[in-house]
Amino acid sequence: MAKLKVPAVLGDGGSTTVEVPGETLAEVLRNHAEEHGEGLRNSVVEDGEIKEFINVYVDGAEVSGLDTAVEDDAQVRIIPAASGGR
């Protein structure tokens, strides 16, 4: 199963890492939603695409599509864009 790192801002408090099955990023997000609710998936996906200000990495490589292959032992990280400052 892939290890999905959920950042605190998109989760239920602190950041967590959960193991989720799936052969593609879309399947990992769908399976996570079935177990933990739609919150994360709704924060990441819009109209079948990764939202513009969300960065997703599989094993350290940035990905741009939900059809990205995810190996059994992959590390999946979701990082929302940060802004602010002057």
TrEMBL record:
Gene3D superfamilies: 3.10.20.30. Coiled coil: none annotated. Pfam families: ThiS. It comes from the Archaea. This is MoaD/ThiS family protein. The lineage of its organism: Archaea, Methanobacteriati, Methanobacteriota, Stenosarchaea group, Halobacteria.
